[in-house]
Amino acid sequence: MKVSRVYSPDIYTKIMLAEQDKKDDIYRYEMMMPFMGKWDCYHIPLKPTHPGGYDIIMANNRMGLMPPSAVDSSLESSIDLLSDEKIWDDCQSAIETALSRFEERGIELKVTDYLYSLFLANPTNAYTVMNEGYCGDGGIPGYIMAWLVPSKETIKRLPSALAHETNHNVRYQFIKWTNDINLAEMIVSEGLAENYATTIFGEEFLGPWVTKTDMELMPLIKEIIHDGLEVTGFDNITSYLYGDEMAEIQQFPKVGLPYCAGYATGYYLIKHYLEKTKIPIEEATILPAKEILDEVEDFWT
């Protein structure tokens, strides 16, 4: 098992000092190209195929990453914060620990080489605001990343967030991802990832995608989620998973749910499953969603 990094602060500094017309290509070819295997899976090109077309910069802007055109001297202090080697050491250790726990359980990982990086988040992006300044992505095996508005709190939470993303990275080495994936898989996947992160770092590192949920609303939330478990397509799943506010931003249908209600439901569903079955979370991580859901029908009542 090998975990490598793309050290982004040096690239951000280069972008910051570059002429405006050079910034985008530095971002594309030095920061994002190493993750090309990931972007290919999502069918995201580094450069648009026609003027104004979809590309990696547009895609990342939507997810809340800082656009290269905005990387100037005003971000120097953020780049300096991100340059601390201890942050990178802690993140590397979190990923290695999260991976090694599977191997210790006798689960042979199908991917041996992993690449990760940390990026700057756009503090004005709605995703960034709702996620309290940090987020991540680990859905494509071999690639793990997080982005943040650097602060004492977000930096402290990075290792746990990366453990969450590493759990996704392992799950999708064993569970085939499809474009018509349903809500049931997403709920189970997010619940496994967040429970895995808290197994390693403790419940004090639960993400806002769980802690912001009003528990008094959970009976209604569970009813709506349960009715939608077979829903497919990201446009239809978004409101169930991320809530109506996020769906409205994307101009997707709303179903009457608050911020990240699906994440919270998944977390408590998997917590219930683990307590009921006593199956180690590493083993649960690679099980089909249906097998897990069949064991916890009582969760919904």
The assembly state of the depicted protein chains is single chain
The average pLDDT score comes to 96
Low-confidence region ranges: none
| Main beta-sheet annotation | 4 strands, mixed
Number of domains: 2
How many H/I helical runs? 16
What is the radius of gyration?
A: 19 Å
Total strand count, please?
4
Structural class: alpha/beta
Distance between the termini: 42 Å
Overall geometric form: globular
Summarize the amount of helix as a percent range.
Answer: 55-70%
Kindly describe this structure:
With about 300 residues, this protein is α/β, with parallel strands linked by helices. It has two domains: about 1-175, no CATH class; about 180-300, no CATH class. It has 16 helices and four strands. A four-stranded mixed β-sheet has the order 1-2-4-3. It is globular.
Short synopsis of the structure:
It is built from 16 helices and four strands. It is an alpha/beta fold.
Which short descriptors sum up this protein?
alpha/beta; 2 domains; 4 strands; 56% helix; Zn-dependent protease; DUF2268; protease
Set down the secondary structure blueprint:
Blueprint: E1 2-6, H1 8-17, H2 20-32, H3 36-41, H4 56-63, H5 76-82, H6 85-104, E2 113-120, H7 126-130, E3 134-137, E4 143-148, H8 152-174, H9 183-201, H10 208-211, H11 218-227, H12 234-242, H13 244-250, H14 261-277, H15 281-285, H16 289-295
